[in-house]
Specification:
Elements (H helix, E strand, L loop, with lengths): L5 E5 L5 H8 L5 E3 L10 H4 L3 H5 L10 E5 L18 H8 L4 E6 L2 H14 L9 H5 L18 H9 L7 E5 H7 L1 H12 L21 H9 L4 H11 L10 H22 L12
Parallel strand pairs: 1-3, 1-4, 2-3, 4-5
Helix pairs in contact: 8-9, 10-11
Length: 282
């Protein structure tokens, strides 16, 4: 039975699933259409490697075989939401020669996007103020989702490097090699995987996302989780999507200052800086 030799391990909110679909067009690459959450979720990990490998039964002649689960980069978790604390070690013990792809996005933008996604999913009240969630008295509500902690990329990288060699990990900057110049990012991935780096990927639309949530629909989802159908009806009835939550200038400045030491370690490690990580437009 074929087994994977590469993983797209993160980060969250960096269009990694879209990237996985893109590279899956390459004739030498096989990727799964869905995240497996094998190495990071206890319920799946307990099913064993045979269960995991069965996901790759449709592999034919592809030489690069893998999957994308963005939560794999979230190391040292506390077990919230069934998350295993040593995902990096789990990967290594199963596949020590695994190649890893890490897409890094401005941690401030990623945190804001994560708050909106979690609210959209009905896990946070849409009535909460995003400033209080990110840096204020409601910050404790984000801890179980690692919204702030998951932006400390150097800590995550350091954890993986305790097991994997540096040349086993490819680091891409979302703003530069995915958002602006996807061709450059794809070429780096193909070269990293040892497949034809000159293969041209055809146009591919983004997957249609979930129904745009209305404020009424999200309120019902959070306060009455058993009324899922009613919440969806509210989304269709009111139609006008809720505005994305966006923090004020003080919160943004605080977040940038919070992530600065970690970003500086990351830039030194990568031997490059990312201008797009120094500001966000209001």
């Amino acid at each position: 039975m074929p087994f994977p030799n590469f993983l797209i391990i993160g980060t969250q909110e960096a269009e990694t699933r879209y990237l996985s679909r893109l590279i899956g067009q390459h004739p030498e690459i096989f990727t799964l259409s869905q995240e497996t959450h094998f190495f990071d979720k206890s319920a799946n990990f307990e099913k064993g490697l045979a269960w995991y490998k069965s996901h790759f039964s449709k592999v034919t002649s592809e030489t690069a075989i893998g999957e994308c689960t963005a939560d794999y980069c979230c190391v040292n978790g506390r077990g919230d939401e069934g998350r295993l604390p040593n995902v990096h070690q789990n990967i290594y013990e199963a596949f020590p020669d695994m190649k890893l792809i890490f897409v890094l996005r401005n941690p401030v933008a990623r945190a804001i996007s994560a708050v909106n996604r979690i609210t959209n999913e009905g896990k946070l009240s849409p009535l909460l103020d995003i400033n209080e969630l990110l840096i204020g008295p409601k910050n404790n509500l984000l801890k179980r989702y690692g919204v702030i902690e998951n932006g400390y990329y150097y800590q995550q990288i350091d954890a993986f490097l305790r097991f994997f060699k540096r040349n086993q990990i490819l680091f891409l900057i979302f703003e530069e090699e995915i958002e602006i110049n996807i061709s450059n990012g794809l070429e780096k991935i193909f070269e990293f995987m040892g497949v034809d780096k000159h293969f041209k990927i055809g146009p591919l639309s983004h997957e249609s996302g979930p129904l745009q949530r209305t404020k009424a629909g999200m309120i019902l989802s959070y306060y009455f989780p058993q009324a899922k159908k009613l919440a969806l009806k509210a989304d269709k009835l009111f139609k006008k999507p809720a505005k994305e939550k966006w923090p004020n200038r003080y919160t943004l400045a605080t977040l940038f200052k919070m992530y600065q030491p970690e970003n500086e370690k990351l830039f030194a490690f990568l031997d490059r800086t990312v201008p797009a990580w120094f500001t966000l437009d209001l």
